[in-house]
Amino acid sequence: MSVIDLFSGVGGLGLGFKLAGFKIDVAVELNPKRSLVYKRNVKPNIMISGDVRRVDFTQFRNVDGVIAGSPCQPYSNATPRGKKYANHPYFGLDFEVVRVVKQVKPRFVVIEEVPAWKPNDIVDELRKLNYDVYARIYTMSNHGVPMKRRRWIVVAVERGLANDFTIPMVKPHGPWEVLSNLPEEPCGSNPCMWNGKVIYDHVNVSVNSKLKDVIPLIPPGYSLITAHRAGLIDASKYVKDINKKHSYWLYRIHPNEPLPTVPNPRRSMLLHPFFNRIVTVRELARLFTFPDWFSFKPLNVDEMYSAITDSVPPLFAMHVATAIKKLITLP
Q1: What is the CATH number of the domain that holds 39?
Q2: How confident is the model at residue 85, as a pLDDT?
Q3: Most buried among 36, 196, 211, 312, using CB within 10 Å?
Q4: What is the chain's mean pLDDT, rounded?
Q5: Where are the alpha helices (DSSP H) in the chain?
Q6: Same domain for 199 and 161
Q7: Which residues does residue 154 pair with via DSSP β-bridges, in sequence order?
C-alpha cells in the first residue's frame, strides 16, 4: 500500500510506515535540507521540496493513505502566547490535510499533533467526507519508545473500522540500554569509525565553563532547577536568575526510566545519564528510535537536534502503521 507523507520533516512518520511495509509514493517538506535527509534515508518515489499549499494532489489519486505531522508551533506550549493560534504563520496548515484528502480520496488518513491541539474541527470535516474517525492522545512510552512523549493520533478509515483501531502496548528499553555501545566522547569528525563500525552524527556542542562545573553535580532524573529546589545543589552559585530557567534545563536522563518530554533538547542541554556532557545527535536519535544507519547530513548540528525533536519516533509510527494495515485488510 502506498501513502503520501505531508509535512514530512526528515522522516520519522514516513520511515515508520516504510518499516511496516508501506510504500512512500510522495513526500512533501518545505525545508530543502530536511527534504534531502528524507530523500536519502526514506527514499520516496517522489520528493517535493515545497509548500503543501501550492501542490495539486489530484495527480496522486492512486495512493491508499495520507499521513501527516502538521506543524505544531501554533499550538505548542513552547510557543509564546502572543504568537500562538491565528497569530502564527503556520496556523491552519492542519486543514491542508482535509484538502489533500478531498483531492486524493485515500482509504485511510493519519494525523499526528501535540496534546494542546484541538482535533474536533478536523474530525468533523473527515466525517463529512464519509470516513469513520478515531482520535486519542497516546503516551509513546507505552508503545516501545523510551520517552513519555504524548501526541494526538487521528485515524480516519473507510468501511466503519475506526473503532477497532488499537496500537499494541510495548514496554520500552531503558535509556541507558538504548544509549550504550557508543563512544564515550563525541566524535571529532562526522561520520567516524569506532570498533570497526561507522558511526553517524555522534556530535554535540560544547557548554560554557561555568556549567561544566555544575553538570557533574546533577543526579540522574533531575534538572539543575529541580535539584536546586530539592536542596541538592545551590544553583545560584552557577546561574543568574535561576527562577527564569524552565524546569527541564540541564536535565540528566535517568538510566532506567522513560525520558520526560524535554522541550528542545539542544537549548535545554539534555544531559547523558552517566557522562558529564549533553547528549550527542546520535544519542538523541536513538532515544527517538531512529536507526543508526539514518544520517542527518547535510543539516548542521543545531538543525539535527531540532529536526529529531520535531519528528515522530519511527518505532511509534511503525506501530501505528502496523495497526492501520491490520485494520484495512480485514475481510
Answers
A1: 3.40.50.150
A2: 59
A3: 312
A4: 91
A5: 12-19, 32-41, 94-104, 120-128, 175-179, 209-214, 224-229, 265-268, 281-287, 301-309, 314-328
A6: no
A7: 111, 135
Read off the pTM.
0.94
Tens of pLDDT, residues 283-298: 999 999 999 999 999 9
Question: What pLDDT is recorded for position 243?
Answer: 76
pLDDT at 144 over 90: yes
In a shared domain, residues 109 and 137: yes
16 and 160 part of one domain:
yes
Q: Which residues are registered as beta bridge partners of 157?
A: 108, 132
Cell readout for 265 is 533538547
Which range marks the domain in which residue 43 is found?
2-171+311-328
Please give the backbone phi and psi of residue 28, each rounded to the nearest 5 degrees, phi first.
-130, 125
Ramachandran region of residue 21, left (φ > 0), alpha (ψ -120 to 50) or beta?
left
Which residues fall within 8 angstroms of residue 234, CB to CB, at 6 or more apart? 228
CB-side neighbour CA atoms (13 Å) of 152: 26
Reported for 253-258, long-range contacts at CB under 8 A and 24+ positions apart, including other chains, are 253/175, 253/179, 253/220, 253/279, 254/175, 254/220, 254/221, 255/174, 255/175, 255/176, 255/220, 256/174, 256/175, 256/176, 257/174, 257/175, 257/221, 258/141, 258/145, 258/146, 258/147, 258/148, 258/172, 258/175
Position 209 confidence tier, pLDDT thresholds 50, 70, 90: confident
